[in-house]
Amino acid sequence: MKQNDNQLLKMRLATLDSTDSMNTTVYDDSDWKMGVLWWSALSPSSKVSHVERHGRIYSTNEVRDFYTHSENVEGCSCSLSPILFNVKTGEVLQTELIEKMDLARNEHLKTLRLSTITNQQLDN
Ligand SMILES: [Zn+2]
Questions:
Q1: What residues contact residue 20 under an 8 Å CB cut-off, 6+ apart?
Q2: What is the pTM assigned to this prediction?
């Protein structure tokens, strides 16, 4: 694993720890909790399995699980931000942001699939 990958992983894990701490101190006994909003870099080198997570909300433990696999850490330029969501309904307050991120994710996946098809055609 490269040095840069390790530094980014440390920053991500620190974000998860502070999110957990907010949930136990501020949002304890509340229907609202902080989840983790996933930001893919949406770059040509972004892995599809990471792009697919763009704009989706995960629990801190789901994110920790994801990064226990070293292939998910290598070359990953995704970032994470805490986001408030309703644990009962899944509702978020930044609906416009999530909609924009959904659009960006789907557009990027389309582009990736098109370039995969083109490359396969060139190979054949
Ligand atoms: Zn990534």
A1: 60
A2: 0.88
pLDDT of residue 96: 96
87 CA to centre of ligand 1 in angstroms: 25
**Strand segments (E) across 1-124:** 32-39, 57-58, 79-86
- Residue range 11-46, pLDDT digits in tens: 999 999 999 999 999 988 899 999 999 999 999 899
The CA distance from 42 to 103, in Å, is 12
With H, G, I as helix, E, B as strand and everything else as coil, classify residue 104.
Answer: helix
Longest dimension (CA), the chain: 59
Distance 50 CA to ligand 1 centre (A): 5
Q: Does residue 98 sit in helix, strand or coil?
A: helix
Q: What was the pLDDT predicted at 3?
A: 84
